[in-house]
Amino acid sequence: MATMERTDANGWGYTLENIGANVIRYGLVIVLLWVGALKFTAYEAQ
């Protein structure tokens, strides 16, 4: 049975891909929470 072993280059790429996905995911969550919070402030309630 062949196993797929990650070399250093593939390991770095996999790690950077995970970091990028997490930055995008949590960035979107922060923006949505920010917009939702603005709905309850004087900025939006005019």
Gist of the model:
By secondary structure, this protein is an all-alpha fold. It has one helix at 8-38.
Architecture overview:
The protein is built from one helix and no strands. With 46 residues, it is mainly alpha-helical.
Task: Outline the secondary-structure elements.
Elements: H1 8-38
End-to-end Cα distance, whole Å, is 67 Å
Rg from Cα: 20 Å
Q: Please provide the ordered H/E string of secondary-structure elements.
A: H
Characterize the largest beta sheet: strand count, sense, and whether it forms a barrel: none
Question: Into which percent range does the helicity of residues fall?
Answer: 55-70%
Number of beta strands: 0
| SSE-based structural type | mainly alpha
Count of individual helical segments: 1
What overall form do the CA principal axes indicate? rod-shaped
Keywords for this entry:
46 residues; mainly alpha; 1 helix; rod-shaped
